[in-house]
Amino acid sequence: MDRILVVDDDPNIVKFVGLNLTEAGYRVVTANDGRRALECLKETPCALAVVDVMMPFMDGLELTKVIREEYDIPVIILTAKSHIDDKADGFKAGTDDYLVKPFEPKELLFRIEALLRRYKAEGEHDLIRIGEVTIHPENYSVDIHGKIYMLPLKEFELLHLLAEYPGQVFSREQLIEQIWGAFYEGDERTVDVHIKRLRTRFTKLTDAFSIKTVRGVGYFLEQKS
Amino acid sequence: MKSLYVKFVVMTLGIMILSFFIAFVVSNAYYQYNLKDSNDAKNTEIATGVAAFIEENPDVSIEDYSATIADAGYQIYLADAAGNTQFFGAEFGELNLEDEVTGNVISGEVYHGMANFEAEIFVTGFFANELSNTIGVPVEHDGTSYALFLRPDINLLFNEMHLLFGLLFALTVLLSIILVFISAHFLIKPVTKLSEATKLLAAGDYSIHDLDTNRKDELGELSSNFASMSKQIEYNDKIQKDFISNISHDIQSPLSSIKGYNKLLNKPLTPAERNEYTETVDFEIDRLSTMTKQLLILSSIDHEDYLLRKETYNLREQLERLIKVYEWKVNEKGLMLSHKLHDTEIKADKALMNTVWDNLLSNAVKYNAEAGSIDIEMTEYKAHTVIAISDTGEGIDDTSIDKIFDRFYRVDTARTSNVAGTGLGLSIVKKIIDMHNGSINVRSNENGTTITVRLPLDSSE
């Protein structure tokens, strides 16, 4: 699992973020200020950095700039101020995302996951075209006639998998394992629910493809010429 | 109000006296500059006529003839070289003729006392009963040279006219005063009523009925303005009271729920229960926090002189950034968010507009159906842009739709519902859009709600 650097001068935040990340399966490296953070990065390569803005010695914006220049990893900035100018400053410094304190740990995890996925997907150019529909895996969106559709994670992954191999039939077990993971404890019905949602959404939008059911076996994506 | 009556009368009298004086001075000046010469010429002709008659009829006694002329309405002064003087007709007020003049006239000159009568502001030459204000002509009779001075006897000629004019003048003044009293009463009555109404208003009684708003003059306008003002004040007062009662209710209910759950947390609980209770407390704290923030925004933009910090920026970037912020919440609810945005430069208050989109998007997420969708559509026109945000919630019914921009109005009246609304969001949105000269429109049916915001590209125009 990926290693994540957490930098904040508030030990409570470091502890709280660290705990949540560990629980989610990440390895965590922590630092209390910007300089220490750079030392950590030299010693142990990290996949992503979560950086607080207000810190002694070297503030979060400066640290973000240095990380941008020297390491190719995404940065999420944490800020107590919700003022819009601060956000603009953050993006100028090169951050990929920001979160306003107080934030929900779940949201932080979601953003970390999304950023890591985007960074890994970059350079792979694996977008899928089915007629007028283009699927962009790097930001979980579908493009139809210039309109962007952002899908819920699982729905998108399901569509992506089916669209990657059009015509190939996937069983419910296969889909569960690929998308929800081998340890998923839920019902196979979940697949049906998500398929149903995808169908309702896309029959209104396009007829470039449709998701077909093979009775007793599973689902496949049919591409229309 | 008595003083106003007195003022009216005094003012009318003052105006009359002033007008009289001005009229007198002006007409006197007119006499002095225009009529004096012709008056002089007219009387010179008469005097010359009299002198000619005396000279042509030596058999008629000069005294008898002068007396006859005097009876016809003239004042005559007769002097000869020997210093004998005689007066005929009414007496002169002042005998201010210089001896030199008499001598000159006897020796043959014509004396133009009327034309040369000294002009004074408050003395009308026409009425001045003075010896110097006469026409003097030389007369030969019985071998004696006389000087004959003559002027019309104004008193005799115009005596009845004087009385007539005097009466007219006196009656005019008297009647004016009486009529001013009466008309003042009618003028002052609505003012008295207004004054009573202001007292009632100050005491908090907004029911003003007996104002005379049908008058077609300024007072009628004042009364009807006053009536509409008191209505507005009544309305504002009601809003204010409602606002305060709403605030206290909306602060009290989360507080009491926090208190209740906090008590529960002190009892022995299963981890699941404890978790549920702390989440509820958290939820209510969030609601209070949102509400205070929104109240702060409202109170700051409610000031009429609130300064919009307008700047030109890219609306697409603003919306995309906000969509990114909402990515997680949208995903949590299993929603699909679609958008089609264009690069549009807009001149507006960036932070306030962000509040607008934030509120609209947060509503679209909060009130959406499970696995629903949100659509953001942007249409560009020449001088404005239209942003439509649609959700697939259960919609708003017709009776509620008119009220959704009212402060503290919530469609889901059951405040126990799990949606952390404050009823302030849309009123803030509406206010901000109005401040930018834009408009906002809501369409809703059971399949969802679409909120359309129309904004001028440069809101300062």
TrEMBL record, chain A:
Keyword DNA-binding attributed: yes
Record keywords, A-Z: Activator, Cytoplasm, DNA-binding, Phosphoprotein, Transcription, Transcription regulation, Two-component regulatory system, Virulence
4-aspartylphosphate modification, residue list: 52
InterPro entries from the UniProt entry: CheY-like_superfamily, OmpR/PhoB-type_DNA-bd, Sig_transdc_resp-reg_receiver, WalR-like, WH-like_DNA-bd_sf
Molecular function via GO: phosphorelay response regulator activity; transcription cis-regulatory region binding
UniProt subcellular location: Cytoplasm
UniProt keyword Cytoplasm, yes or no: yes
CDD domains referenced in this protein's UniProt entry, alphabetically: REC_OmpR, trans_reg_C
Superkingdom of the organism of origin: Bacteria
GO cellular component: cytosol; protein-DNA complex
DNA-binding region in chain numbering: 125-223
Domain Response regulatory, chain residue ranges per copy: 3-116
BP term (GO), one: regulation of DNA-templated transcription
Main location: cytoplasm
Domain OmpR/PhoB-type per the UniProt entry, residue ranges: 125-223
Pfam families: Response_reg, Trans_reg_C
PANTHER family to which the protein is assigned, alphabetical: HEME RESPONSE REGULATOR HSSR (PTHR48111:SF49), REGULATOR OF RPOS (PTHR48111)
Free-text function comment from the UniProt entry: Member of the two-component regulatory system HssS/HssR involved in intracellular heme homeostasis and tempering of staphylococcal virulence. Phosphorylated HssR binds to a direct repeat sequence within hrtAB promoter and activates the expression of hrtAB, an efflux pump, in response to extracellular heme, hemin, hemoglobin or blood.
The protein's name: Heme response regulator HssR
Organism: Jeotgalicoccus aerolatus
